[in-house]
Protein 1
Amino acid sequence: MIPRRVRITSALDSNWQEVLEDVYLKAIPVKYISSVDIKLKDNRTYSIDVSSKLKTDWNNNSEEASKNLEQIIEEIHEAHGIKLVEYLLDFDMIKSEISFTSSRLGNENKSDNN
């Protein structure tokens, strides 16, 4: 099994960092991944700019992007061996969507109570 870790691209308090370190990676939508850094067994690093590839090569198709990203990682692992895969998340996007969803839920609860 390839070791995997989540990192954040913006400043973040320690509570969020602790929460995100324990996130199961299959549960993270690819649209929140800004890039992936792959540390090879020979100490070289390979980076994939996921946000750019999502917009260009993968036509904003999250399902296709997710499959392609895993395929790339597996091919690199077979060819070179991997020490660690780090997923760098766009936390600003996550926060804005959480805020938007929370606001919508608050409005729905208000309308249910009226």
Protein 2
Amino acid sequence: MKKTGFKLFLITVIILAGVFSFISNLKVLAQNPEDETVVETTGYSVLSSPPQQSALVVVFGGYYSGNIEKKGFTTYFEFKKNDTNFNTDAKETIKIVRERDVKESEYFYSSPELNLFSTYYFRAVGYFNDNPSQKFYGIVLNLRTGHIPTWATTYPFSSVGYIQPVCISPQILVNGVCENPIPTPPTPPTPPTPPPAEGGTGLVKCGTEKYVKGDKDANGRDTEGQIKNPCGFYDILTLIKNVINFILVYMVIPIAAIMFAYAGFMLMTSGGSTERKSKAKSIFVNVAIGLIVVAAAFLIVQTVLRIVGYDKSWEWFGF
């Protein structure tokens, strides 16, 4: 009986937890996206200006919404003269701190001290009292003090709806609203242009191209059938270098490797035969001497080519 009662209690707890979770999710889903906390800069009003009054009276206007829980909320304005960079030296108006009877949304105003005949930029700012580090900003607007716009005839006047937002980089103005620009995909790097071919293939890279019909030289003379890349002294040196490299890389080294392998095989299979051992050692020595001779000949040829002015004589070594 006790076990049955405990099971019923456990099932009841699980069901209640599921119901509360479901209700909580429904509450989150039912919230309108517009319920998010938003601070807007609505505009400004000029109440008076000299000579009507002894001082300029300007009122900034703002609006906040989305305070669903009606938590303590503080609002004010940031403004700066002749500059839209609010990160440094920006001035602040008196802060309106709401702690009791906080509304979900509300207009707010402030009257700062401004100089005449100057351009000011300003924006509305708001934050929850329990988290002043997370601030909400309105768009940046501007005004020219001491100047009556063309659409106004006298003081007082209000600029609500007549002002052009000033966007702070990287934001841009889209349909009267400051928005972050859509990132442009990076331009793929341009592949490097391959170096022009030296002409021809194989050991000889000159004298292989001819002018076709219609080609003319610098003097306008017909060059059809003539050699486009005739061979010169430099090409002869290139031919010598290519022949030496071909013999060394494609003939001497593979043959030497084969002979070394053959001598090693003879040495391992000689058993007690003195003659086979002697022959294997002789092959080792002769191949090594041959490699030294070829290397010396290669160095001599490359040195001679360098002396006569062939500046690519050492490129086989990567120089």
Protein 3
Amino acid sequence: MTNGKTKGMRLQIELYRWYLDIAGNISKASANRGVSENLARLLNHLRDLIADGWQLQMSNEWSCADQAGADFIWSHPTHGWYALDAKAVGLPRCAIIRHVSVGSSNDKGEFNQLRFEDKVGLVRLLVQLARHETPIDPVVCPAPSCAKARTLVELTNDLSAFQRVLVAASHRLADPRLECWSISLGKSLCYLRNQQAAAGDKSKVVEMQQVLVGHIAAFLDRFIEKSKSSTVVGGGAVRQANFKRSTKLSYVAGEDIVKVLSEGRMLSISGIAAGIRKMFEQRYSALIGKHGAAQWLITMKRIFDQRGIESVIDYVLDRLEARIA
């Protein structure tokens, strides 16, 4: 099993793999001499339910069912479905989600953890639900998807849609447990939306970094050309740099961060001074290789070392100020 999975998740996976194995070999398992009469009877019930169309699915990570708190969906195409939550400690989010115990012991298993009584308990619960209880109507309230969402946006939209389905179904079926479940999804939706916003900010930061690189390159091009002709270097190099333009745009020298408002969100782009220094050194090395120790190169390097980085940042802030105006 891959690293990074929680103990509870490992037990959940182990339980599901045991179920798939036992479901595929029920006749053999129930005929085993070591199987008690009660367990053999349960397995035979399970065999009949599977033959009738009942199916147990485990929700994938980052699926709608997973984010809704359902580790398993026990369903029949026409009768309905149940949501199951595998927990060693604690209770499911609300009463309509049924608890599947996954305690641990020294019982031998794939992870040497899952208790035998929990394996039997899963079969007992599945039989009880299908034989004696009323499932959720799949027409009024379809089950959440157990398939992993392709994107964070898709997952957020799916969970939000499922929340709306739960609210509508709770009113139509007069079942407050469905409304309780819809309310409990608020925390997951808030988390997903924050993740989505963070991902959007990261994309904007990358885009802004590309804009900054373009402005830095433009300044250095002009700086080098004016150095070759021995005129006043860089234009902005002769004025005092202004690092704070407004609440929407500034440069924090101590942290080497440009802060810029973009589409209503304040972005922080770090490492601009270091990036300027690197770009200049790359160009200077190429010029030294081509022109040797020319006097204009020596003068250019001296001027840049004195105030070049400040001048480039001032120039970049000019360009960004025009962009957000």
Protein 4
Amino acid sequence: MVRSTFLSAVLVGIWLVSTAALAQPAKPMAPKLVLAAEWLGKPLTFSFDKIPLKEAIKKLNVQCFLDVKAMEEEALNVDTPISGKSEAGPALENLNAVLQTVKLSAEVRHDVIYIAPAEPSQSAKLVCRFYRLKPMVAIDDMIKQLTTQTAINSWDTGGGRGHIAGLRTGVMAISQSPYIHRDIEKKFDKQLLRVRAPADRITAMVPTKGMNPLAKLRERLRRPISVDFRKTPLNELVPALGNQGKVTMVLDEKALEAASINVRTPVTVQLEGVPLESVLALTLQYLGTSWTIDGDQVLLTTRPVTERRLIEVTYDVRDLTTGKDLDSLIDALTRTVQPDSWTDVGGVGKIAVAEGGLTITQSVHTHYAIETWLADLRTALKPAAAEK
């Protein structure tokens, strides 16, 4: 039986139940809550005094997602009272300071503030972030400090999976869990500055050469939609989401059946003004399903199928490297973006040098991560031009 998860009118959430139910039509909702990227740049003021977690989250006025399934596995409850108030500093840092008192943490994921247990579940997920070293900080000394003063056993130098790649003078890419990234940013704030590309400029900052299969559906997948479905069978929900996003969506019923996934599993999902691709990610994550691109349509199928369905994109990297530096760029990318997915370590992803670029054959979701990686790198290397 699939366990149900928490949902309220203000929180982003999903319920999954094991009995069939009639579809409820989507109800139009005027977007009221800001998305995570916009919220991060705003001043955050709050004061909680033993307020239930689910009520406190409503007061933040930002799209949040409580990973109730993961919380239940760690014996954490949405009604747990929390206390604390905001201080000077980044919004996410303020929120995490309060959440850590109840063993939770928050990060930006799928355009929302994603709240889940701080450990151990998040420690297993690696994400790559870029940092710019502040003046007078040597990169070799910084790497030594990071790997010897922060979660020593989590780095590849200590038997773990975390990795640091130095990219030109003063810029490094770090692949670590969100939990450890927060520790790094707190401990080394005088030496490092987190750098990220503006979410709405990532595509423009990643030029490609030749045909790009991702480009066909990108604009429609990034279109914000608002949905309110109650106990709607998956095979009815999928085309309804497609209609809202003006994208053809189909279920890979053969693969789902082979994986014992019932296409009539009822789903309840309520989201306001969130990009269609994020709606899909948040809706599908508890079902063991995922999505990929199949020509000019979106295919909802099993995770193994999406990982094996590869597309080829050639990225123009002439501004990032010259000749001998290309090998270093490839090494940094493959060791910090889905490092287990490349052929040299037993995966299926391929990377080859093309004239003025890199031809990469990977899954859709890995290509998304590569785009963000390249945009973040350009932001770190050319801050004056890229951050305007």
